[in-house]
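Data deposition worksheet. Section B asks for the primary sequence of the deposited chain exactly as it was used as input, without tags or linkers unless they were present during the calculation. Section C holds the resulting structure in token form. Section D is free text for depositor observations; keep each observation to a single sentence. Incomplete worksheets are returned to the depositor.
Section A, Depositor: J.P.
Section B:
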Amino acid sequence: MARLLLLGGSNSQINAVKKAKQKGHTVIVTDYFADAPGKEFSDFSEMVSTFDSEGCLEVARKYKVDGILTVGTDQPVLTCAKVACELGLPTFIDIVTAKAVTNKRVMKSKFTDNGIPTPQYRLLKNSFADHELDGIRFPVVIKPLDSQGQRGVYKLDAVGDIRNFFQDVLNYSREKEILVEEYYDSDEITLSGWVHDGTVYILTITDRISMKNYPHIGICVAHDFPSRYLHEYYKEIKDLTEQIVEVFGIKNGPIYFQMLIGGAGIMVNEIACRIGGAYEDELIPALTGINILDMLIKEAAGEIIDYSALEKFDFLNIKEKASVEMFFIKEGIIDSMSDMEKIKEQPGVISGKLNFKLGSYVKKIENATQRAGYMIITGKNRDELRENIRNAYKNLKICNSARENMIMSFRGICL
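Section C:
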């Protein structure tokens, strides 16, 4: 059995910790939060940031690890590649590719240099002059170049707004520039897949539903499968995915691409070489029978991966409908909560978890880290799925001392 270093101990990584331990591996978790929930399930843990490649390298040497991995989070992908390459550990991607898929300066440059459609953008320093935005239409979206979880991401209407939010964006970055891109009025889809010897296998394409919480943007509240754009745009999505994989030199491993579909067609928002953070490690096996988390752990442990199921898989033959419901709650102190095990007894609810405990104080929503929990819900058709979602929320309660249900609704059930 192997000693595996897992970067990140958030709720998105708990399944990876448990799965690796079930397989008999020793798991070491690094996370700069002392109370990161994944640490509770690990064999060992260290208070080291997943962004800190030198710190994680020291941890890897301390525990003499056999492999390193991360799940559901962007920036640790680069740390994984650096540590793996330094110690000669298994890795799907090299440092160059890892940098390209975790730094938006490199990512956007590769998009524009290779004809991959993406919104117009600029890179700005704090001292930028107004004319540097010539040709950019407002509203715009501003982002850190190297962050995650929608931290420091805002939709803004004027140059003065950019100046007002500039330092806040830099607070989530190790760079001295920020990304400013035109807001594209569109719907968003996400593609999860696996690349094996350069061949792309698409596993899911979902509609990514985000809350409207101005000026915050992009905080996801649901993934609906399959995307309503699937049949009209499938060939274009597939061709674009294969182009990205070739341009970025992605030879093996998981991929998670976010695309925008609007009046000007498809544009690529961001790409990542990881399992998605919206519980795709549970959704994908439930829909496809392909356990990508198991594959990821096997690679990190240096074990042989059986790709036969992947190679036989036909994405377009998936019949079941599904939604990953990621719910948020109003600011306040939690006084009572439903039993999620009881919720999972409801029709179509195949998984779920509450992220907070009784007595927790939950702040006003600013980014995806404040997610209160999730449910994965399925149905044989869209009507059944819609009814199962309604029923699950009807039974789900997170209340304050005034017995007010704190769960917030950001969309109608319009699947």
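Section D:
The radius of gyration is 21 Å.
Residues 335 and 401 are 5 Å apart (CA to CA).
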